[in-house]
Amino acid sequence: MAENKGVTPRSEDYSRWYTDVVQKADLADYAPVRGCMIIKPYGYELWENIKSALDCRFKATGHRNAYFPLFIPMSYIEKEAEHVEGFKPELAVVTHGGGSELDEPLVVRPTSETLFGEAYAKWIQSYRDLPMLINQWANVVRWEMRPRLFLRTTEFLWQEGHTAHATRDEAVDETLKILDIYAEVSEKVCAVPVIKGRKSPQEKFAGADDTYTIESMMGNTWALQGATSHFLGQNFAKAFDITFLDESNELQHVWTTSWGMTTRTVGAIIMTHGDDKGLRLPPAIAPIQAVIVPIWKTDEQRDSVFEFANQVKSQLEAVGIRMHIDERDGLSPGFKFNDWEMRGVPVRLEIGPRDVEGQSVMAGRRDVPGKEGKQIIPVAELAARIPALLEEIQEALLREATEFRDSNLHEVNSYDELKAIVGTGWGLMWHCATPECEDKIKEETKATCRCFPLDQNPEWSPEGAKCAVCGEPAFGKAYFARAY
Amino acid sequence: MAENKGVTPRSEDYSRWYTDVVQKADLADYAPVRGCMIIKPYGYELWENIKSALDCRFKATGHRNAYFPLFIPMSYIEKEAEHVEGFKPELAVVTHGGGSELDEPLVVRPTSETLFGEAYAKWIQSYRDLPMLINQWANVVRWEMRPRLFLRTTEFLWQEGHTAHATRDEAVDETLKILDIYAEVSEKVCAVPVIKGRKSPQEKFAGADDTYTIESMMGNTWALQGATSHFLGQNFAKAFDITFLDESNELQHVWTTSWGMTTRTVGAIIMTHGDDKGLRLPPAIAPIQAVIVPIWKTDEQRDSVFEFANQVKSQLEAVGIRMHIDERDGLSPGFKFNDWEMRGVPVRLEIGPRDVEGQSVMAGRRDVPGKEGKQIIPVAELAARIPALLEEIQEALLREATEFRDSNLHEVNSYDELKAIVGTGWGLMWHCATPECEDKIKEETKATCRCFPLDQNPEWSPEGAKCAVCGEPAFGKAYFARAY
């Protein structure tokens, strides 16, 4: 029983705490192949909830799901010059199939722009076929030298959207519309606040004209890239010759976008909300929103407590709450309380013989420790008050994370000021957007350029602004931070 | 426009008709890698509907979803002797990753018993951990020499359930419970009637003690295996040393099962219901259940027709019908009628100026051609009558397929009788269950042993019954048929 008792406190060792939580809360386990992981049911249910939040938003904006193959001929990856340069070092390559060596090696998809490019060239003939708005839910493989559960794994799950448009403006609009969906799902569903921004040329997707990103601050102030949306210009359109006849019957290349969000999001949720005791899950995605812990001594008490617990469960399930009763024998209530706290269930309902008598339950919030987070709720009020309580917790988690983040964002006026705060916060600093300055900063501080936030002056390269490192004209203000 | 006009009639060339339907109805397309396919949105939506029908039934019976890795070390595949023998010829092998040659080649999963086996050995300690009921939705790869869209592809999508139990009986019950779920989804949701049966030793899963199957008859009388559920005995439990302490504190091996249903089901639906004009989709899984074809001449008519069409659409969407309005310009109503018939939409609603005036629509059934399938429905009755009509169509398709199948099932009393009917029906014949007789039958007639149907005398090897081929004692009556 001691094994489940707790995790390394977050305050003691953040990195070990993270690995402990992932494994002890049964979110994931290591797989026999290094860099791969098994997503266990509790972790996968989190992902299913994130998936459905994204999927319904994609569909509501006119996107349709499809499925493209796992294998890509090596020659396809090589068609777009930047693309192959970016991905070649991370590829897994199939050389044998069906007992023989293959004529051409096959790449296990690291991303599917090339396959979509080939298909779109075939499927798109005229402006009537545009826009083409397709998404797929799939696994992808990028060889990972320093793997970390959920955050960096050789294989991961994601969705990848690929769209083609008649005009540049439409494609840019799509890129930003998707960025808004990612931001909304991250903030409203995962309670993870984000900064929307534009990546520097060094950090953008291999083959994109522009990459937009949502960046979040984890509990140790490090940054995590939550999802990216790429404006691909006509790069893939030209590499794969994706053309259409416009309304004046002229042949033109399309404009394309691509965008993805991954199982890494589960890692972001853990690291944003977790505390010394383990996970804290936002109600909107928690596999179990309220857990009932029955408390009894005699067999007679057991019967009445379980009967009442089942009533409460049905009542709350009827209003759409995801419920669970901890029916395990031979474990003390205290053990169970710790266990469910570690697993991050937002609300705990304690039901003992006195509660049965009083026809009420003791409800405890995971996010508010001690007496302050507890309240007695009469059974008649449960169906109204538990959903309201869950909403309150959802908002409280977002508020707490936002306050924590905002208190660790610093506008810095010099490179020295940046150096002073890196590791304990993010610095917003004038930046020229060149790889040279980013390499220097990374080497000297380990911080990377997270993004040029979109909420600054929308005119890039403002007059008179100089890069804090090299003194050349700045492209804008960019956040620098240690990152996962 | 001619390109969409039609498919090769089914009556003319069944095989070409199938490929035509798949491609022209936009269900799937060929991929650059031979044997792989692109599932297009219309085909994927069918799969999504099949998926959710299965997924909710798995969850209702206590199964949880997880995700296991794509890559399996070659040595794992080799742990169960029959398993490796069965799968080795079909493997895709990754030999290079991250720019270097790997120490041990990795297999792209053809199925995941080995990975689940390894994990279960780690996760299961005591009888309290049982049963372990996990499913995953995933892609798998089995190298395919004679690929066919949906029916046989090198990569396909499926779910694979893997369960572990304390007793043999429980594991057998699970195997059959899942078989019932498969049969229900096939019949009630896909309107594809099935025969539940047991595979012969030659046809069972590599590593199973027993394989149960659902077998369906396609429109050309060939058989198609719809899904399989395997009782694995203690084969994998012993190969991976999956043990538990039972209630008397004795160490025992678990009993395991595995079961899967695949994207091949889409092929079964096409081949069961399709006709000369193309697809006919059962309403329960049709991505579009009713399509509105607006008919107009003048701009004024266009406005009022579209306004009315949108009202009808909203009204029917409000009662849960999946609707679409064909808003395409420059195509005649006749062209659109053919197009939606080819795509198998169960109900067509025609709306012209006279319908606007009369506040009614002309509803046509895809499954009943000509006037007989048409009726005028007043707008006030749509919300009640269209759902009823869809149910009627669902039942009619199942009934039609069942009647067709039953009229082509033959109880045969000798091998000669079997020979006479193979190719135009299935023969039910006493069979010894040996590979020798099956090989002989296959060589001489091309028919394979589909299954020993479960609805015969449940006592296998009935006294006095002799195999119709070799004269040795029969195990039971088995169906033989040409099969996909």
The N- to C-terminal Cα distance of chain A equals 33 Å
Please state the oligomeric state of the protein chains shown: homodimer
- The Cα radius of gyration of chain A reads 25 Å
Largest sheet of chain A: 11 strands, mixed
Major protein interface: A-B, 58 and 58 residues
Q: Supply the helix-strand structural class of chain A.
A: alpha+beta
Low-confidence stretches of chain A: none
Helical coverage of chain A, percent range: 25-40%
Major sheet strand order of chain A: 3-7-8-14-11-10-9-22-23-21-20
The share of residues in extended strands of chain A comes to 25-35%
What characteristics describe this protein?
homodimer; 484 residues; eleven-stranded mixed sheet
Q: Can you describe what's shown?
A:
2 copies of one chain form a homodimer. The first copy, chain A, has 484 residues and is α+β, with helices and mostly antiparallel strands. The first copy, chain A, contains 14 helices and 23 strands. Helix content of chain A is 35%, strand content 26%. In chain A, the strands form 5 sheets. The first copy, chain A, has an 11-stranded mixed beta sheet, sandwiched between helices. A 5-stranded mixed beta sheet of chain A has the order 16-15-17-18-19, sandwiched between helices. In chain A, helix 2 packs across helix 6. At the A-B interface, strand 2, helix 2, strand 3, strand 4 and strand 5 of A face strand 2, helix 2, strand 3, strand 4 and strand 5 of B. Strand 5 of chain A pairs antiparallel with strand 5 of chain B.
